[in-house]
Amino acid sequence: GENVEQHPSTLSVQEGDSAVIKCTYSDSASNYFPWYKQELGKGPQLIIDIRSNVGEKKDQRIAVTLNKTAKHFSLHITETQPEDSAVYFCAAKNTGFQKLVFGTGTRLLVSP
Amino acid sequence: GAVVSQHPSWVICKSGTSVKIECRSLDFQATTMFWYRQFPKQSLMLMATSNEGSKATYEQGVEKDKFLINHASLTLSTLTVTSAHPEDSSFYICSAPTGGSGELFFGEGSRLTVL
User: Fold this and answer.
1) What is the Rg, in whole angstroms, of the alpha carbon atoms belonging to chain B?
2) DSSP codes, B53-103
3) Which residues of A touch B (CB under 8 A)?
């Protein structure tokens, strides 16, 4: 089955800096890669996703890149703000199947 | 994005009692919903897949008699933790995929504390 690894487990940056979180997946059949932001005591919130037919997707300060050959994808947050502080999870699935496999999470701390 | 609502957001119960958690898709229909469990500082662990009109599918190691799942309608799934014990204390989160794009949206989560 699919296995998703995520790094780093914690990331501390200064406000205004960029943050990058990386994930690798094992199943070459996976074709959908969402990213979730989870604030303390809340459910995960979908912030961006990418499908295997594109290599990059951007939404304001957030971007995701996908390298299908290497089977890895990354989340890029530019001009970080304190409210970006949260736990971020990557995930992967094959749209032909229902189960979403999550990474282990990255705790991002943005200091003012 | 689509809205998934979970209730209650937190519950405290005595050991041996049962607790029901509801998950509703507010603006779309969901023939399938997923129930996750999350321990502190850990990732989400899929417990079971709830299927409207049929039995739930449980992940390996999840006790189906302990965690009863009922998908009563296209917008409602319930998780009942039966004969709860302190080790069942956790954060339970449901999710539902939208039909078209398959994006998965999560509820706000329910924190269960068993005394």
Assistant:
1) 13
2) TS--EEPTT--TTTEEEEEEETTEEEEEE-S--GGG-EEEEEEEE-TTT--
3) 32, 34, 36, 41-46, 49, 89, 95, 98-100, 102-105, 107
Average pLDDT of chain A is 94
CB contact under 8 A, B103 and A103: no
Q: What residue in A sits closest to B45 (Cα-Cα)?
A: A102
Q: How far apart are CA B6 and CA A97, in angstroms?
A: 24
- A104 and B43 within 8 Å at the Cβ level: the answer is yes
> How far does Cα B47 stand from its chain's mean position?
8
Q: Which two tokens stand for residue B4?
A: 């998934």
Q: How many of the other CB atoms lie within 10 Å of CB of B54?
A: 9
Name every residue in B having a CB less than 8 A away from some CB of A.
1, 4, 6, 32, 34, 41-44, 46, 49, 93, 95, 97, 102-109, 111
What confidence tens digit (pLDDT) does each residue in A76-104 have? 999 999 999 999 999 998 877 678 899 99
